[in-house]
Design goal:
single chain; mainly alpha
Length: 164
């Protein structure tokens, strides 16, 4: 039990619990890219410096090692840029679709075809169309309930009139 309390009180767990899915996505992928690039860079740096040390060329290769570090930093920044752009490409439509689902859940069935994601051919488009279909089905159910209520009301009026 103490283990679970320590996990739930962990700062990293609290950070992820209090953030949006977009933040979690960016932070997770950013950290993953950083760890991969940093790990590979550090590995190759150590291997290269060991080889240069063994060959006695450490002083001559210092500028090359510095360039290697700068190129690695550039690769990390480029990777981070790719993560942010791809994250926006994925998370923005999902956030809009979630908003549509929230409106339908609150009873606002006027959210017909206002999402551009409805035309997408990927999973996001499938999800958007399914949520729109759910809203349309809710509209149909409400319409049928209204019709039945009107039928019941007219039948009860007829019964009342025939009873008099």
């Amino acid at each position: 039990m103490q283990f679970l309390e320590r996990i739930t009180n962990n700062k990293i767990v609290k950070f992820f619990d209090s953030r949006s899915i977009r933040t979690k996505f960016f932070v997770s992928l950013g950290l993953l890219i950083f760890i991969l690039i940093f790990g590979l860079t550090y590995y190759f740096y150590l291997e290269l410096s060991n080889v240069l040390k063994a060959a006695g060329l450490e002083a001559e290769a210092a500028p090359i090692l510095k360039k290697f570090g700068l190129v690695s930093l550039g690769a990390y920044l480029f990777g981070l840029f790719v993560v942010v752009v791809s994250g926006l490409f994925v998370s923005n439509p999902i956030i809009r679709i979630t908003g549509m689902a929230d409106k339908i859940g609150e009873g606002d069935l006027t959210v017909d075809g206002e999402l551009p994601e409805l035309k997408r051919g990927d999973e996001i488009g499938v999800l958007a169309r399914a949520i729109r279909k759910m809203g349309d089905n809710h509209k149909d159910i409400i319409q049928r309930v209204r019709e039945l209520a009107e039928n019941v009301a007219s039948s009860s009026e007829e019964l009342y009139a025939s009873g008099e």
